[in-house]
Amino acid sequence: MAKWRIVYVLGLLQAMFGLCSNAQRIYGDPNYPFVRNATQAPPLLLDYDYIIIGGGTAGCPLAATLSQNFTVLLLERGGSPYSNPLVENLVGFYPNLQTNTPTSASQQFTSEDGVPNNRARVLGGGSAINAGFFTFADPQFVANAGWDVALVNASFAWVADEVAQFPTVGVFQGAARDALLEAGVTPYNGQTYEHVIGTKVGGSLFDSNGHRHTAADLLTYANPENIDVYLYATVQQLLFAESPTDVPGQQPQPRAIGVLYTDLEGNNHTALLSENPQSEVIVSAGALGSPQLLMLSGIGPTDHLDFFNISIVLDNPSVGSRMADNPTNSLWVLTNEAVEVSLIEVVGITSFGSYIEVSSGQTEALLGVLEGDTINFTTPTEYGDNKLNDRPVTAQVLQSRIVAAILETPSGPLRAQATWGGTILQKIWGPQSWGLLRLASLDAGDNPRVRFNYFQEEVDLDTCEQGIRLAMDAVEAPALSSLQYTNDSVPPLLTPVREAVLASWPPRDSSNVTQDSINIREWCLDSVTTIWHYHGGCLVGDVVDRDYRVMGVQALRVIDGSTFGQSPGTNPQATVMMLGRYMGVQILRERLGSEAGV
Ligand SMILES: Cc1cc2nc3c(=O)[nH]c(=O)nc-3n(C[C@H](O)[C@H](O)[C@H](O)COP(=O)(O)OP(=O)(O)OC[C@H]3O[C@@H](n4cnc5c(N)ncnc54)[C@H](O)[C@@H]3O)c2cc1C
Ligand SMILES: *[C@@H]1O[C@H](CO)[C@@H](O)[C@H](O)[C@H]1NC(C)=O
Ligand SMILES: *[C@@H]1O[C@H](CO)[C@@H](O)[C@H](O)[C@H]1NC(C)=O
Ligand SMILES: *[C@@H]1O[C@H](CO)[C@@H](O)[C@H](O)[C@H]1NC(C)=O
Ligand SMILES: *[C@@H]1O[C@H](CO)[C@@H](O)[C@H](O)[C@H]1NC(C)=O
Ligand SMILES: *[C@@H]1O[C@H](CO)[C@@H](O)[C@H](O)[C@H]1NC(C)=O
Ligand SMILES: *[C@@H]1O[C@H](CO)[C@@H](O)[C@H](O)[C@H]1NC(C)=O
Ligand SMILES: *[C@@H]1O[C@H](CO)[C@@H](O)[C@H](O)[C@H]1NC(C)=O
Ligand SMILES: *[C@@H]1O[C@H](CO)[C@@H](O)[C@H](O)[C@H]1NC(C)=O
Questions:
Q1: Which ligand has the nearest atom to the CA of 484?
Q2: Cβ proximity of 480 and 423 under 8 Å
Q3: In whole numbers, what is the pLDDT of the chain averaged over residues?
């Protein structure tokens, strides 16, 4: 759409609806009176200091902070996390990932690598559908970002106080903790949010009753007088106008002035910033959503946008580039007794970039997750060669052997034993391999196409090999092996399952070091899964500057995991929430002075 036409349409809407910037409040959500359904939003909302797109892990703390002193509109395409049992309870974690309706909190996608994946579509974002593990960034990551360390620390504390606590570890997590220490992942650092080499118990969004906290809880710090939140509001496009720059002689730049969004009934709505030149649109739509929305709005690689007939606002080939997902490989362990149902609690942080994480009691979940078709890795696309090309097997093949064995056994007794096991998984640092994101359609509600090129760089395979050797050492260490299934300790029922579990481990060759290494590396490729820590697409330096302003346009920032060049810490969410708070305070300080936002 030509810019003059947008401005014209807006003028028309304004004339029709007047200054209807404040909809009648609908007190539908018991938790926050300012949260409403977008179908109830007027066609035009006006006069916001900030319009934030995506009420996710970064968007919620950012909106809460900015609303202290400015008016904020937060638009989230999903629904409320509150009173959604799949979101609120720990045991809902895997079943939730199986849902995929137009309004489910999890939206499934399969990357072009052929690896199944999930993304958030709910207020709270990833923090409302994730495994809850809560841990800070590596201090080196903070240093590289050039952030103000004191404000980073204060922002981590602000987030942690509201959403995180330490779990009480059960039998399996405790055994895995001891086994990691026996395997040499030392020292023991006890309970800590800090990223330190050794073995530790990290934080969790889940409390002792298995009840989840999310980033949406941070909206409790919002000023209710200054914030409007609309749910089921899918932003389709950012709106721009030409704007002269402050710099004499410089070409006018596009300036973000508002957004177009749709509700569940398919109706179009417009929201506009105030005329104050310091007003801004902030995109916090996540690593898939943010580069996708920039492209849909005309910011991205010209050739790709031309293909979709999208008018160019700014050519930037880096939008959607550097998409990465940390490869993850799991060792399944069958135990000789029922163990606690837990997500991630114990982690081992090595000095060589392998992070070993533990979960348990999920055999039931395995059944749910892995029933169904095996997905093959894809053939080459225009992105070129990929290490996973032409590999007909995936993690799903290995794991479906376990499922097949389980399904062969009578379901009654087996389901009673559904918590007889756990996983020791490895996520690798970085990663160094990366791919691309491209549009699949012109609808922002659709998934874009994304390819992560797992293990494309040899160094990622090196880390996988080294880390999996260590993880196997832990599985075979006394503390864990004493908990493992033996023929004597369990009814014969589980013997085929045990065999399938063992067959899902890397085939070893102790007589030939070269062959042994090949085996483990092949296994890393064949059994790769996601741990859902994908990031990139709007990197600092490529798409945004160090203040997260989109380079080449005005009044537009991107603040979320899409700006990361690597996944921070062992797990990213605490850093993403911290970034939302941190940038909220920084923006308040830019406008109100250094005392603001504390
Ligand atoms: C299944 C799963 C398990 C995980 N486990 C852990 C874990 O245990 N620990 C950990 O630290 N990390 C974990 N992660 C990763 C972590 O949750 C994410 O890295 C983090 O939540 C990303 O935050 P974000 O703000 O970048 O994006 P998100 O939190 O995804 O926020 C983006 C928001 O924008 C909305 N949105 C997108 N497009 C639009 C649009 N066009 N209009 C309106 N709204 C839009 C989305 O609905 C979403 O709510 C997990 C992630 C998943 C998916
Ligand atoms: C939001 O509005 C849509 C369309 O009117 C409706 O179908 C849906 O049930 C509403 N959702 C909630 C949670 O109110
Ligand atoms: C900003 O908001 C805070 C909290 O509401 C308030 O104490 C402070 O006075 C405000 N600052 C300005 C400059 O308005
Ligand atoms: C921030 O926290 C880290 C880790 O706890 C600590 O080492 C550092 O001294 C703190 N820095 C500041 C400036 O508070
Ligand atoms: C919303 O806007 C789009 C694009 O301008 C248009 O194609 C569509 O018909 C509109 N929808 C409704 C319900 O008016
Ligand atoms: C772009 O426009 C051309 C010419 O109108 C049309 O043939 C083509 O289908 C459009 N492409 C897309 C992806 O909509
Ligand atoms: C996956 O690949 C195998 C072997 O190449 C083939 O038999 C099978 O049909 C494929 N499955 C799907 C879902 O494409
Ligand atoms: C133990 O199980 C293995 C295979 O899992 C089987 O080969 C072996 O015979 C069993 N031993 C006993 C004593 O049952
Ligand atoms: C070890 O394995 C490699 C790779 O398969 C093979 O080339 C080599 O001949 C083997 N060495 C021995 C001594 O078997």
A1: 8
A2: no
A3: 87
